[in-house]
Amino acid sequence: MTSFSGVLSLRFIALLLAQVVICNNINFLGYINPYIYIVFIFLFPIRDSRIVLLLVSFLLGMLVDMFSDSGGVHAAAAVTLAYARPLLLKMSFGMLYEHQSVKFSNTDIGSLITYVGLGTLLHHFILFSLEVFNISNILLILKKTLFSGIFTIILSILIIVLFSRNKK
Hints:
The chain is an all-alpha fold.
């Protein structure tokens, strides 16, 4: 178990700043917004404490909420994603996760897309359900989840591939 290292701190700050300065100002067609801060949760070290992940995810979500004036929906969605992360890892990577040997820098792209895709759709569904908070608008929730999710998945995969691959 390692502590919250300098690399993690830098990733936390960089993704938070990218989210609040750039991504919060992107709004395609009124309902397509990228939420790339969740890349931090995806890339959090697997062997580190789950409690630390939950607490840091809550902090990250609350900071995004503060900058977005969104009343806690990002914190709830981020904690839900962090809580579901072991199940998502097991579904996506199977035995690699069982043996605690998943390294995002050298996993196959299909497993990575499955992991990021499922996690993003879960996060976005929780986020937009809490944001809209009206079951009669389920089609709006699903539309926002799908289209923002696709945009976020593409950006997240690009970020992970560009910044996590082994440097040769």
